[in-house]
Amino acid sequence: MKVLITFFLLVFNLTLFAQSNQFAGEYSRSLSEKEKHTIEYKLTLNPDGTFVFHSYSKLQDGNPTEDNKYGKGKWSAKDNLITFSANKKEDLDSKYTLDFNNSTARFITKNSRDKSDKVVKTKLQFLKSEIFWMNSIDVFKL
């Protein structure tokens, strides 16, 4: 009986791990306008449930003209929703200033049952965030 329970727990944990691997990876987005403005986002979701975010902007008439912003913390998935959190004591410092608490993104990919030729890029679409410019941002899986 103990062996059977251990087996079921092992299978259950492997299933959970496999589902988070679906979301884990690097996501990116680059926006530019004829060498005048560049905005780049890079988000890395690690399989261990941590993430790192980097935003780079170079604006021709901006002040400052170049800016780097960083964030890190933990992520978790339920269905196709990714929830981000940051521990203010451990994850925020002089470099990592973006607080991703209360941020949520939807994982979007082509449905496995869809046999059409329609191309759907795998992406994360931010639904809500206390970082105002992150709302409605799409980052695509590399």
From TrEMBL:
Q: Which UniProt keywords apply?
A: Signal
Q: Which organism is it from?
A: Flavobacterium ginsengisoli
Pfam families linked to this entry: NlpE (PF04170)
List, alphabetically, the InterPro entries matched: Cu-R_lipoprotein_NlpE
The name under which this protein is listed is Uncharacterized protein
Q: Which domain of life is it from?
A: Bacteria
| Keyword hit for Signal | yes
Annotated signal peptide: 1-18
